[in-house]
Amino acid sequence: MRNTLTFRRPALLAAALLGATAALAGAPTAHATTSTSAATVKPAINQVTCGSRTDWLRLWTEYHGYPVCYANNGTITYGFNPPVNTWTSYGICFGNNSGTVTYYVDGAWTTKSYGSGDCDNWSSRYGTTVEVGRIAITGR
């Protein structure tokens, strides 16, 4: 028998989903299971087409798009085994967002907080690229 839950009011469902996403934003993965099925909760962060927009988070990375843009609160984790599953990146601008970035450079992991309008040119600061493992947008 499948476990089901019916919401008669879509607004309540949306609020429940947003609450669950916010509670799990710090967790790399989260799974809810029943006896017959499994579901994965995903953060609200999503990749968007940059165009000429400067209000989104922009990550400069040659291999995945130049730049790659993200919108909405949430966390995206690429991985923590550089350079196998990290993103080689030149710099970042947070646009109208705030949050954190965890990156690997000079043999060590660093997590740095950024506010709205903050940019970081890693290739200029370190004289090389960094390996990004995780990005979190936490607000504006």
Structural notes for this entry:
- It is a single chain.
- This protein has 140 residues and is mainly beta.
- It has 2 domains: 10-40; 46-139, Gamma-B Crystallin, domain 1 (Sandwich).
- It contains 2 helices and 12 strands; from the N terminus they run αβββββββββββαβ.
- The chain has a 5-stranded antiparallel β-sheet.
- β9 and β10 (108-114) form a beta hairpin.
Describe the structure concisely.
The protein is mainly β and 140 residues long. It has 2 helices and 12 strands.
The top-level CATH class of the largest domain is Mainly Beta
Order of helices and strands: HEEEEEEEEEEEHE
Average pLDDT taken over every residue: 77
β-strand amount: 35-45%
Kindly name the structural category. mainly beta
- Assigned CATH architecture of the largest domain: Sandwich
Largest pleated sheet: 5 strands, antiparallel
Shape: globular
Please report the total strand number as a whole number.
12
CATH topology of the largest domain: Gamma-B Crystallin, domain 1
How many domains, as an integer? 2
Any chance you could write out the topology, listing elements then pairs?
Blueprint (H helix, E strand, L loop, with lengths): L9 H15 L6 E3 L4 E3 L5 E3 L8 E5 L3 E7 L2 E4 L9 E3 L1 E3 L4 E8 L2 E7 L4 E3 H5 L3 E10 L1
Keywords:
five-stranded antiparallel sheet, 2 helices, single chain, 12 strands, disordered N terminus, 42% strand, globular, Gamma-B Crystallin, domain 1, 140 residues, mainly beta
